[in-house]
Amino acid sequence: LGAAARLYTDEDPLVILSSSTLKPTVSNSSSAWLIQFYSSWCGHCIQYSSTWKTLAQDVKDWQQAIGVAVLDCAQEENFDVCKEYSIKFYPTFKYFRAHSSPTDVGTTYRGADRQVQAVRQLMVNILQNHTRLDWPNHCPPLDPLSSEKLLPLLGQRSDVFTAIVVEEPDSYVGREVILDLLQYSGVQVKRALSTDLLYCERTHTQFCCYLMSLLVIRQKGKRLLSGQVEALPHKQSPEIWREFDRSKVYTADLESALHYLLRVELATHSTLEGEELKVFKDFVTLVSKLYPGGGSVVKLMETLSDWLLSLPLQRIPYQAVLDLVNNKMRISGVHLGAELRWVGCQGSKVGLRGYPCSLWTLFHVLTVQHDAMPTALENTGLEGETAPVLQVMRRYIRTFFGCEQCGRHFEQAAAASMDRVLDREQQVLWLWNQHNMVNYRLAGSLSDDPLFPKAPWPSPSLCASCHEEKSGVHVWNQDNVLRFLRHHYGASNLSPTYSL
Ligand code: FAD
Q: Which part of the chain is the ERV/ALR sulfhydryl oxidase domain (predicted)?
């Protein structure tokens, strides 16, 4: 059960970047670059990977003009570089112009359409946005020829064929065909607008197939261009499998959740102000009051909470928070594990489970703790809310959770029913039920770990009395579910095994 394949492998026709190769690849490159920054734990990124692979296959012949790459922000070695490039949500698409400077952090594509055709057209636009001064070295001209330039080409003797794609001004076919044939010699493709000539409409694939069948087109040598770095073999650190008991909750998972959240997820925000700062303060207060068992995590969160509340600032540089977490805590002997150590949240493959699993676990634990300690949030400013744990979770997910799609789904569910939660017991049950809704939706999806298939939870083996049958139909016994959740996520069921 060691590390298996990540979302992308060397067999895919794209470049897998890492912290050490990103900058050397994109800065001062003779070609432009389109990079998908993803997170291998993000379910949406997992689903989307097949589209990105199809795209990469489709435009692999364009690479001398514009390359396609990926970088996994969930890999520990890439945490800093994703922060430097301000990657807050996954997937984020950034493009870099050819000949860009080393300080260029790229431009983010914000379009909602991420299907292959839309991204192909985005790539054409990226290329056309270059000027004559920074035009990618090997990218042919993409502008249409005027009729004055076009007519002399007809009947001209040449060693190569010239194909002219005549099309409407908003068509991408001509430009796509020009790029599709970039790697081939023996034919040059030009485009002209239909306002000049009669034409018949074809797709870019029909054009390419036709042109290639006409000619014995030689594929040009595939030499790496200056400034390009060959994709390094994708290193996968072998993970050690940690034996664990599914009926327990592991503090190592909760600590790893906080480690990832504080040092990676939030660290992509260079400053916290306004709503973000408030959400962060509330989250820290909540954890400091409800994290079970005292210990160094609670001390750290209390110190952080006191510090945040004592600051008169409306705007906090996130580096100050990191300094506090990393250094001051170490001096006073209060610290949070400095590495990710998944136990109940480990996946059978690298990239499955991990952080989102631990975030669910953390919030389940917090709802159960709040139920067990009704007065814990007094004088925190959170006591006035009916379901404070859910409300803080909702705001956290909406503001900071890297999987944007997950955040949207969660927000929809919260808007539909969270206001019906009237007490602490219902708070525990609402989160359980909502989590099961997500499990139903994701069962059988690519982010489903075969070793931990998504299914209604708890299974009969964990809690037989939670399941009942009425008139031949399965129903939950909610009283027993509540009892089970109180036990499962309660302080006495937390295992410190594998914790620091
Ligand atoms: P998880 O679902 O993460 O569960 C972790 C652990 O919690 C399980 O191992 C089990 O011990 C326990 N558990 C399972 N079900 C319940 C329950 N009903 N009540 C209490 N405990 C339970 N991914 C997407 O692809 N699309 C989404 O829209 C999406 N939305 C998300 C929203 C939120 C708020 C979060 C935190 C994550 C979301 N994810 C989404 C990620 C997804 O839900 C899983 O967390 C991820 O796929 C990892 O799955 P897992 O197998 O580790 O189990």
A: 348-457
> Does a structural domain hold residue 142?
no
Which structural domain, as residue segments, surrounds residue 466?
249-495
Pick from 357, 484, 488 the residue to mutate for probing ligand 1's pocket: most ligand atoms within 8 Å of its CB: 357
Measure 458 CA to ligand 1 centroid, in angstroms.
Answer: 13
Contact criterion met (CB below 8 Å) for 93 and 108: yes
Count up the domains in the chain and report the number.
Answer: 3
Q: What is the pLDDT along the chain (500 residues), one digit of tens a residue?
A: 233 347 999 999 999 999 999 999 999 999 999 999 999 999 999 999 999 999 999 999 999 999 999 999 999 899 999 999 999 999 999 999 999 999 999 999 988 899 999 999 999 999 999 999 999 999 999 999 887 777 777 666 677 778 888 888 899 999 999 999 988 877 888 898 877 654 444 556 555 555 554 443 444 543 333 333 333 332 334 568 999 999 999 999 999 999 999 988 998 898 999 999 999 999 999 999 999 987 888 988 998 999 898 888 889 999 889 888 877 666 666 667 777 899 999 998 877 899 999 999 999 999 999 999 999 999 999 999 999 999 999 999 999 999 989 999 999 999 999 999 999 999 999 999 999 999 999 988 888 898 999 999 999 999 999 999 888 788 999 999 999 999 999 999 999 999 87
45 part of the active site: yes
DSSP-assigned beta bridge partners for residue 266:
none
| Whether residues 215 and 253 fall in one domain | no
**489 domain-assigned:** yes
- What is the distance in A from the centroid of ligand 1 to the CA of 69? 28
In a domain, 379, yes or no: yes
Shared domain check, 155 and 124:
no
Per DSSP, 441 falls in state H
334 and 480 co-located in one domain: yes
209 in active site: no
CA of 354 to the centre of ligand 1 (A): 10
**Separation CA 125–CA 97 (nearest Å):** 11
> Is residue 235 domain-resident?
no
Do 154 and 282 reside in the same domain of the chain?
A: no
DSSP 43-61: HHHHHHHHHHHHHHHHTGG
Q: How many residues does the chain have?
A: 500
Question: Which protein residue's CA is at the shortest distance from atom 21 of ligand 1?
Answer: 432
Residues 279 and 366 in one domain: yes
Q: What is the dihedral of CA 488, 494, 495, 500, to 10 degrees?
A: 150
CATH for 27: 3.40.30.10
